[in-house]
Amino acid sequence: MVKICCIGAGYVGGPTMAVIAVKCPKDVVTVVDISTQRINGWNSDHLPIYEPGLDDVVKQCRGKNLFFSTEVEKHVAEADIVFVSVNTPTKTHGLGAGKAADLTYWESAARMIADVSKSDKIVVEKSTVPVKTAEAIERILTHNNKGINFTILSNPEFLAEGTAIQDLFHPDRVLIGGRETPEGQKAIQTLKQVYANWVPVEKILCTNLWSAELSKLAANAFLAQRISSVNAMSALCEATGADVTQVSHATGTDSRIGPKFLNASVGFGGSCFQKDILNLVYICECNALPEVANYWKQVIKVNDYQKTRFVNRVVSSMFNTISSKKIAVLGFAFKKDTGDTRETPAIDVCKGLLGDKAKLCIYDPQVTEDQITKDLSMRKFDKDHPAHLQPPSPSSIKQVSVVWDAYEAVKDAHGVCILTEWDEFRKLDYKKVYDSMQKPAFIFDGRNIVDVNKVREIGFIVYSIGKPLDPWLKDMPAVVA
Ligand code: NAI
Question: Catalytic residue among 61, 272, 284, 417, which?
């Protein structure tokens, strides 16, 4: 029996450990967190995060070999393997502000591990961290070690929110990085045996520590780069009359390119892509590689451009003013099948629309009013810190209402912005939507989910990213100087 403890009961720690527990019934897995609210959630019928399939997995093993606790020190002290899956937000102050990873939470977890440990441990980096973090953590652990051996491994997580359980059950690969010493190699084998309970061994890749750390940043940078590439094409499609869906299909059928991550949209979001690319940029700059840093910076610039372009399309189509006009916002989460709103493009789009004094009525099937209010009032980067350490936000925002039904949101609206690709938005009765709106009625589809011809036939003026422009929009500027 292996005793596993995971520090951080978030979007990664919770689902990852639940899957390890269900697949390794002989091992005991405890997930600990400093947030009492989070742990209470994990021990209740309403798990603190929404993820398809997660409830079932947790129900199968919670109380048997899966436990959630706030007794951080006790469980860390007892464990053979300690995963660390805490927040690694972007720094907001000081050296590297706005780019470098803030390792405050990681460092305090490492110091605590060193303080409370009484037996040898394998410490596993699960959080996404800058290259060479393992070396820094090793120093903290070994300088406080009281004769205890700590072996550090990097085991970055590649799950995607919304499909986390499927991704964890059937990963493309599991990556384990360790020192090329006998202790390092032995620790790699111990962790490999845990995953080998359900992952084919040929999919468990073993590398040195730095390669594992950098591979995670590289994977996220490549994924985000594909989205920015297709989004850059979408602007060109609108200018030329090409259709981005046709272009990305034709491009993606090339087996060297492949079809995934080629959907044009209002932009990427999520806690990782921007943060990890900024982190990569910072590492490049620190290593005197400005050309490489600038290359990756561009991925974020195009993402920001895409959101600005979308807001400009809304404002310029509606006679250059949306002041006091009701705009329905359908979807706030950064993608479908998650309630996560960190870095969602909806935040920047809504702030842009509010900047032009629109009245917003927002509906998302998984995001609460409280969360939306927080997101629209918080400073960039603050939201990636533990919830109980975030600054308080107002209980409501003037000009914003949040409702629990799409038809309620669109009632009397001048325009509808679709910002998340929830399946239910594909199935809406758009005739009913049209009938309840002010005329002319506009749809701005930031996820290309509506059938443009059908809704145009109903009477809507439609803007769909990267599609041939509605005659109405043709002479309107895409980006206002
Ligand atoms: P999260 O914010 O959902 O969870 C982190 C948890 O750690 C919070 O509940 C916080 O209270 C807790 N925590 C912070 N310091 C602690 C301490 N000293 N002791 C105990 N608990 C502590 O974050 P999430 O999304 O799970 O991400 C964790 C890491 O995994 C980040 O580095 C992220 O970049 C990485 N990652 C995230 C993915 C995602 O899809 N969300 C995917 C792959 C990696």
Answer: 272
pLDDT tens, residue by residue, 272-288: 999 999 999 999 999 99
| Residue 284 annotated as catalytic | no
Supply the pTM of this predicted model. Answer: 0.93
* Rounded Cα–Cα distance for residues 237 and 246 (Å): 10
Pairing mode, strands 174-178 and 150-154: antiparallel
Q: How many angstroms separate the CA atoms of 144 and 121, rounded? A: 13
Tell me what pLDDT residue 398 has: 86
Q: Which ligand 1 atom is the nearest neighbour of the CA of 108?
A: 18
Q: In 261-377, where does DSSP find H-type helix?
A: 273-286, 290-317, 345-355, 369-377
The set of protein residues with a Cβ atom below 6 angstroms from ligand 1 is: 7-13, 32-35, 38, 72, 85-88, 105, 108-109, 127-128, 157, 159, 161, 271-272, 386
- Digit-coded pLDDT (tens) for 368-408: 999 999 999 987 667 667 776 666 667 678 899 999 999 99
Provide the 3-class DSSP secondary structure of residue 4.
Answer: strand
* Closest atom of ligand 1 relative to the 157 alpha carbon: 43
Q: Give the residue among 378, 339, 389 at the shortest CA–CA distance from 105.
A: 389
